[in-house]
Amino acid sequence: MTPEIRPAKAADAAAIAAIWNKIIVETTVTFTTIEKTPEAVAEDIAARQAAGQGYLVASDGAQLLGLACYGPFRGGPGYRFAMEHTIYLSEAAKGQGLGRRLITALEEHARAAGHSCLIGAVSGENTAAQAFHSRMGYVEVGRLPRVGHKFGRFLDMVLMQKLL
């Protein structure tokens, strides 16, 4: 069965938190060390959707395989057309083209909402995500040395942007 891409719903919150928390605990893909609760994820889904922002999931019916969402890149009205995105897949979903499908659907949502660009803030150690974004048409527009700290070391952030 081909996984479907659909808007997230509150019932997805626990599965989203499980995917995200594995990444938080085990990797430098995200610099945060604070795990997500299903309640906080459900609130985030509702808030983003109420603001007209995309929050999508990939599901094969039996399980959630990935998520993609976006929100403001920075605060203030001057930044209202620039969005920062997040995309995560479960381990089981990697290498099947699902990331491509999720980010394409997210870009379509952002474009339809009138946004000018999507920005990915990628860990400097996450060369796979940098390569993925490049394949999807994102361009490195900045590198911020030593802005993150996790697992006892400093980490760079790579900003990658796609004009919509």
TrEMBL record:
Its EC number is 2.3.1.-. Residues 3-164 form the N-acetyltransferase domain. Keywords: Acyltransferase, Transferase. CDD domains: NAT_SF. Transmembrane segments: none annotated. It comes from the Bacteria. Coiled coil: none annotated. It holds the Pfam family Acetyltransf_1. GO terms for molecular function: acyltransferase activity, transferring groups other than amino-acyl groups. InterPro entries: Acyl_CoA_acyltransferase, GNAT_dom. PANTHER family: N-ACETYLTRANSFERASE, UPF0039 PROTEIN C11D3.02C. This is N-acyltransferase YncA. It comes from Thalassovita autumnalis. The gene is yncA_2.
